[in-house]
From TrEMBL:
<feature type="repeat" description="TPR">
    <location>
        <begin position="774"/>
        <end position="807"/>
    </location>
</feature>
<protein>
    <recommendedName>
        <fullName>Ethylene-overproduction protein 1</fullName>
    </recommendedName>
</protein>
<dbReference type="InterPro" id="IPR011990">
    <property type="entry name" value="TPR-like_helical_dom_sf"/>
</dbReference>
<comment type="pathway">
    <text>Protein modification; protein ubiquitination.</text>
</comment>
<dbReference type="InterPro" id="IPR044631">
    <property type="entry name" value="ETO1-like"/>
</dbReference>
<dbReference type="InterPro" id="IPR019734">
    <property type="entry name" value="TPR_rpt"/>
</dbReference>
<dbReference type="GO" id="GO:0010105">
    <property type="term" value="P:negative regulation of ethylene-activated signaling pathway"/>
</dbReference>
<dbReference type="InterPro" id="IPR011333">
    <property type="entry name" value="SKP1/BTB/POZ_sf"/>
</dbReference>
<keyword id="KW-0802">TPR repeat</keyword>
Length: 953
């Protein structure tokens, strides 16, 4: 089926949007080079490959009934109302982020630019670029640290406001009951008041310091709000008669001191002492100036006190602000802005005051309004007035006039819009503003690529292709996938395939290249491309999904389940769980289907099944009629069993079922968050943790959950404070455990280790269930091991195993190993492997307790089960290096770094290069590693050592 090349939304090829995008490209990019993309002007309709579908069971479908008869195991009662999954509906989405061909070279170059940056504003921009590059990796901790570094080096109010709001958005405090978007959590980093202080970068005062606004005299210390002490006789003026001047406004006369008024600005000084008629008058008519008598009295008071008093209403201060702008009274104007800024706390306030800010060129006032709007994201973008403010070109010009229009601002706004899946015309306009505000090449590249992705989602393929071509011409090779995809959607399959062939021939092959080409090939060539994609990048989910769906089309359902399991084992995602659910329905294994949907809904509560055609929770209701229903007691028994088998997905599903019956139970939400963290689903985990906090009935429980939120977002001291406050209210297992866990996160000496041990012992004395006590015993055993108390550690692990905490086998094996009982350690890990259902981490750990051949076998299995685990690659590389196979050792690390750029692997490869006297390559890997973690001591030492060695060569 070919897709029409006509534009959508009623737009022709010469539509205003097409012209606008073309103009943006002409304005911000070089003319397309003659050697650029050129293909034969031919078009071929794409041939679609369909898995067999069962549309005959659809009341609303029209399908060949012969197709359904080829699958006798499916019928109208098999709960497959939408047939089998369609391979065309599982196409991989386009990555909206920067995706450089050589990520290591890119971040290495960026690190060099950061350490050699000449000013703080440049450093701030470089850390923003770092954020953009790290988006492709998707590690929330890396992304947050980049934003924090950008905020640390921000020198202007605008950047501080945007970055502090962005950091706050990443934590989503608005989901906590009772927390306002404008509340400060106690650190300068995100403090809304600190962001409005116009001071430069000061290395002696870190943004990670405690914020002064948490103290009682915060406003005085920060100097954000001026003193508002009331004065008696505020309108009385004392002075010599020749110093008095009267300003008439209507029938009112305001008495002022001439020199005081004149000192407010040069224009007023000229008016009162210059060659104007007014300078010789004692009475001056200000009736036509546009200021009320009350506001003029305010001007008089300020001229004497240099303060905005607390008896001034906001309307009067706004008049004084206008007067200040008219007569260039900068000091008084600044005081007005300082006075008004704290009064803005809602979106409605901000929308009103920002217009006054624009009219009077009041940058600080606009910053205060902007801050409220940004800290209310994402909800504020649902306000049409807010969206218009940010998206209209007129508003952009107004923002620019007061220094509040920037790439940083629109980058933040567009990322929020993308995350909220906003695809409206206004969102497109936001991306157009992003392009207009871009200055650096990487900014233009990112802006065009992301606009291309958005237009692709809107099915505006011709406009989308134009944007992708612009990004491609600026050097972003990955944008070729966008060009190919838009060609394909317009029926130009041959041209799409030729483009990707060209990319493959001119560049070092990457997994995404083969994955993309597979979309435009058929049969064995398609399968070969997908296999090569998996070989180069096993984290790509589409190859597993396609292969499994194809197997279902051939009635190989069990094989399809096993294929999709390969990626679910190490990378859980809603789309893969949906497919496995589909396959279980084909097998009529409804219990397994319910399990997968419940786990899926824990990740995304609003997920729509069957390619967006049915609500997930509705399907669970339907399937519940086919499966045995469990009582709460049954659920707890099943949870213990799943936990014991280290079946995290099964455990997650059971907790979801328990929450259906008891949605207000905060403890269950907390357990849900722990499992999601274990499955590396950090955003979903934080959502569950916030819900636990919101649902908590008692204060001591709520404090514990707040402590975990603070800990998970990097605020260790604040988390510790919450734990201590909770213990003061009530001694509880979770409070003691939080305190112990937080303290153990730091390097422990003998005294602090003893303290943590006592905290865990105190925790174990408090009421709790076996699931949590097993974890506490396991942690206690680990600390005993670190302290050399092996017998006590063994007791802890054995006690944990008695209450089905299966992971304690690993700790017990460590104890045996330290006692030089390697056979016992090996056997202990074998027990864990048997109970955990072929756990990759268990195989990896068992490899430490056997000979080299068996270790190699175990590590090979670990990589097969979870290619993201880096230890096996490092071990194999070290073995090859010992055998003096240097090239093979480097290659072993390189193939893993290609899809998992991890610090330890980069450090090891740099060390290999150093030993091979390849100093340039060693420096590159050190720089890339330090870009990921600039404080890593071993890599810093290696970097400096290699620099010195390179100087002598």
């Amino acid at each position: 089926m070919s897709i029409s090349t006509a534009t959508h939304d009623g737009c022709s090829s010469s539509s205003p949007r097409s012209a606008k995008i073309a103009n943006l490209i002409r304005q911000f990019t070089n003319t397309m080079k003659s050697g650029g993309l050129k293909f034969k002007d031919r078009c071929k309709k794409p041939t679609q490959v369909h898995a067999l579908t069962i549309n005959s069971i659809l009341s609303s479908s029209s399908s060949n009934s012969d197709e359904s008869t080829t699958l006798p195991f499916v019928n109208a009662k098999s709960l497959l109302p939408y047939g089998l999954p369609d391979t065309h509906l599982i196409e991989p989405p386009l990555d909206p982020h920067l995706n450089p061909l050589d990520f290591i070279n890119s971040i290495s170059d960026l690190y060099k630019r950061i350490i050699h940056s000449s000013c703080e504003s440049e450093s701030c921009g470089l850390y923003l670029e770092q954020y953009a590059l790290f988006c492709a990796v998707g590690d929330p901790k890396l992304l947050r640290r980049s934003l924090q570094s950008a905020r640390e080096h921000a020198v202007d109010i605008h950047s501080k406001v945007v970055l502090s709001a962005w950091l706050r958005y990443e934590r989503r405090e608005d989901e906590l009951v009772g927390i306002s978007a404008m509340d400060c959590i106690g650190k300068v980093l995100e403090c809304p008041k600190s962001a409005l202080i116009d001071i430069g970068y000061d290395p002696s005062h870190s943004v990670f310091d405690r914020c002064q606004c948490v103290s009682e005299n915060a406003s005085e210390n920060l100097n954000v709000t001026g003193s508002r002490t009331s004065l008696n006789n505020e309108f009385l003026v004392h002075g010599n008669d020749d110093e008095i001047v009267w300003f008439c406004i209507g029938n009112e006369v305001i008495t002022c001191l001439r020199p005081k008024i004149a000192s407010l600005s040069s224009p007023l000084n000229t008016l009162l002492y210059g060659n104007f008629i007014e300078s010789a008058k004692e009475t001056i008519d200000f009736s036509r100036i546009g200021i009320s008598k009350e506001a003029m009295r305010g001007v008089e008071v300020f001229s004497r006190t240099k303060q905005m008093e607390n008896f001034f209403s906001p309307s009067i201060v706004l008049e004084i602000l206008s007067f200040s702008q008219k007569f260039c009274c900068e000091e008084m104007k600044s005081a007005c802005e300082v006075y008004l800024s704290p009064l803005i706390s809602t979106i409605e306030d901000a929308l009103i005051f920002i217009e006054y800010g624009f009219e009077n060129m009041a940058s600080l006032l606009v910053a205060s309004c902007l801050q409220v709007l940004l800290r209310e994201l994402p909800s504020s973008l649902n306000n049409p007035k807010v969206l218009t403010l940010f998206s209209s070109s007129e508003s952009m010009e107004k923002l620019a006039s007061v220094n509040h229009s920037s790439f940083l601002l629109y980058y933040f706004l567009t990322q929020v819009a993308m995350e909220e899946k906003m695809t409206s015309v206004n969102t497109v306009t936001l991306f157009e503003r992003l392009i207009e505000s871009a200055t650096d090449t990487w900014q233009k590249t990112l802006a065009f690529h992301q606009l291309g992705v958005l237009l692709f989602e809107r099915e505006e393929y011709k406009h989308s292709q134009t944007c992708f071509e612009a990004a491609f011409e600026m050097g972003h090779v990955y944008s070729a996938t966008g060009i190919a995809r838009t060609m394909y959607k317009q029926g130009k399959t041959y041209l799409a395939r030729e483009l990707i062939n060209k990319i493959l021939s001119e560049n070092k092959p990457n997994g995404w290249m083969y994955q993309e080409r597979s979309l435009y090939t058929l049969g064995s060539k398609k399968i070969l491309d997908l296999e090569e994609a998996t070989k180069l990048d096993p984290t790509l989910s589409y190859p597993y999904k396609y292969r499994s769906v194809s197997m279902v089309g051939e009635n190989q359902i069990n094989e399809a389940v096993e294929e999709i399991n390969k990626i679910i084992r190490f990378k859980i995602s809603p789309d893969c769980l949906e497919l496995r659910t589909w396959f279980h329905l084909c097998l009529e294994d409804y219990q397994a289907a319910v399990r997968d949907i419940c786990a899926l809904l824990s990740l995304d509560p609003t997920y729509m099944m069957f390619h967006g055609k049915m609500r997930g929770d509705y399907l669970v209701e339907v399937l519940n009629q086919k499966v045995q229903q469990w009582t709460p007691a049954d659920c707890w028994v099943e949870l213990y069993d799943r936990w014991s088998c280290i079946d995290d997905i099964g455990s997650l599903a059971i907790i979801h079922q328990m929450l259906v019956h008891d949605p207000g139970k905060s403890l269950l939400r907390f357990r849900q968050s722990l499992l999601l963290l274990r499955l590396n689903c950090q955003k979903a985990a934080m959502r569950s943790l916030r819900l636990a906090r919101n649902l908590a009935i008692t204060k001591h429980e709520r404090l514990v959950y707040e402590g975990w939120i603070l800990y998970d977002t990097g605020y260790r001291e604040e988390a510790l404070s919450k734990a201590e406050e909770s213990i003061l209210i009530q001694r509880s297992f979770e409070a003691y455990f939080l305190k112990a866990y937080t303290l153990a996160d730091a390097s422990l000496d003998s005294d602090s280790s003893s303290f943590v041990i006592q905290l865990l012992i105190d925790a174990l004395k408090c009421p709790s269930d076996g699931l949590r006590k097993g974890q506490a015993l396991n942690n206690l055993g680990s600390i005993y091991v670190d302290c050399g108390k092996h017998d006590l550690a063994a007791d802890c692990y054995i006690n944990a195993l008695d209450i089905k905490h299966t992971r304690a086998h690993q700790g017990l094996a460590r104890v045996y190993s330290l006692k030089d009982e390697r056979k016992a350690a090996y056997d202990e890990m074998t027990k864990l492997i048997e109970k955990a259902g072929n756990s990759a981490s268990a195989y990896e750990k068992r490899s430490e307790y056997c000979d080299r051949d068996n270790a190699t076998s175990d590590l090979s299995m670990a990589t097969q089960l979870d290619p993201l685990r880096t230890y096996p690659y490092r071990y194999r590389a070290a073995v090859l290096m010992d055998e003096q196979k240097e090239s093979e050792a480097v290659e072993e690390l390189t193939k893993a770094i290609a899809f998992k750029p991890e610090l330890q692997m980069l450090h090891l490869r740099a060390a290999f290069y150093e030993s091979m006297s390849e100093y340039e390559l060693a420096l590159r890997d050190c720089e890339a590693g330090l870009c990921l973690d600039p404080t890593h001591k071993d890599t810093l030492e290696l970097y400096h050592r290699t620099q010195k060695a390179a100087e002598y060569t």
